[in-house]
Amino acid sequence: MKKILITGGAGFIGSHVVRRFVTQYPNYQIFNLDALTYAGNLENIADVDKSPNYTFIKGDIVDADFITDLFQQHQFDGVLHLAAESHVDRSITDPLAFVKTNVIGTMNLLNAAKTIWKDNFEGKRFYHISTDEVYGSLGAEGLFTETTAYDPNSPYSASKASSDHFVRAYGETYGLPYVITNCSNNYGPNHFPEKLVPLFIHNIINNKPLPVYGDGKYTRDWLYVIDHAIAIDLVFHEGKNHETYNIGGFNEWQNIDLVKLLCRQMDTKLGRAAGESEKLITYVKDRPGHDLRYAIDASKINKELGWKPSVTFEQGLEKTIEWYLANEEWLRNVTSGDYQTYYQKQYL
Ligand code: NAD
Ligand code: TYD
């Protein structure tokens, strides 16, 4: 039975990856390591908690001794590393927290894997999950490919870029078998309401202003989170060692157009008059260092591994809205307590 470590499995994307691996691979023992920061929530994976091939471990990847002991104890065959500080706005307020988790935390996992797997890399794999934000910002034209030079602009993207470089360096220097994927913006169920889509769904439900940064013309490429989890499964099993794959939705939206689509869908779901939610749109001060445009060329994963998104944006957004409306208690739980302080500091 293979032992697989997934880090950050109580977070947004990690919870969908854990669910997929636990349910699709009963012959794997899945260990979910998560520090349960503000972004980690065991409710996200409550449905697989009792599965015989699943174990949750609460722990911090920044703690090197703890990570070394964990690898000694369990002798993992594979690692899918998703644990991270993931929000750009928080990285502007507290960059060091991002260096600790995203850079040092990744280093600790690399060192532990290198030590445990030494001289025996057969069947082993270190999979680092990263972001398209490492490539910086595009102008009106062009797409990020796997060979686009790194050019990070925010402390978040700089910390992820750094971790990507270390993973690659461990591959080149020590022969560590790794794969890296750089994915575009995800959306879907279990997304913490500090990011654009879940924050705006939450605010529309509660008739609160929708704070659009700057002129709203910033462009992102959006992917439904379950399609990302499917891509991660594919790359983990069929990707080539020492390779990078870009993952994207073939789905670019200017923020303001996305927000208007969201408002229209929410009006329908909430039985509000057409145009009601759009009245909540409020233009606010721009994010410093705001990247103009991200867009992914996902042709490599498409050609080599046959992956493509399974849902359109309209379908994915509708499923997302339905999930939030059906899980208002989840939303209430995560937006109580510290969330209020964060929101006050960020927006009021
Ligand atoms: P998230 O913030 O929702 O979840 C992160 C998880 O990591 C949480 O469960 C948190 O408790 C855990 N964590 C944080 N610090 C930790 C530490 N020191 N030790 C152990 N666990 C810790 O993030 P997400 O959006 O699910 O992103 C997951 C990964 O995917 C990240 O590496 C991120 O860079 C990458 N990514 C995210 C997106 C996106 O749109 N959300 C897109 C591309 C790539
Ligand atoms: P976000 O969800 O934070 O993802 P990222 O910054 O990683 O792309 O933001 C997506 C886009 O939405 C980005 O251009 C910033 C913008 N945005 C707003 O206009 N208002 C908000 O309140 C938030 C959180 C984001």
UniProtKB/TrEMBL annotation:
<dbReference type="InterPro" id="IPR016040">
    <property type="entry name" value="NAD(P)-bd_dom"/>
</dbReference>
<dbReference type="Pfam" id="PF16363">
    <property type="entry name" value="GDP_Man_Dehyd"/>
</dbReference>
<keyword id="KW-0520">NAD</keyword>
<feature type="domain" description="NAD(P)-binding">
    <location>
        <begin position="5"/>
        <end position="320"/>
    </location>
</feature>
<dbReference type="InterPro" id="IPR005888">
    <property type="entry name" value="dTDP_Gluc_deHydtase"/>
</dbReference>
<dbReference type="GO" id="GO:0008460">
    <property type="term" value="F:dTDP-glucose 4,6-dehydratase activity"/>
</dbReference>
<dbReference type="InterPro" id="IPR036291">
    <property type="entry name" value="NAD(P)-bd_dom_sf"/>
</dbReference>
<protein>
    <recommendedName>
        <fullName>dTDP-glucose 4,6-dehydratase</fullName>
        <ecNumber>4.2.1.46</ecNumber>
    </recommendedName>
</protein>
<keyword id="KW-0456">Lyase</keyword>
<comment type="similarity">
    <text>Belongs to the NAD(P)-dependent epimerase/dehydratase family. dTDP-glucose dehydratase subfamily.</text>
</comment>
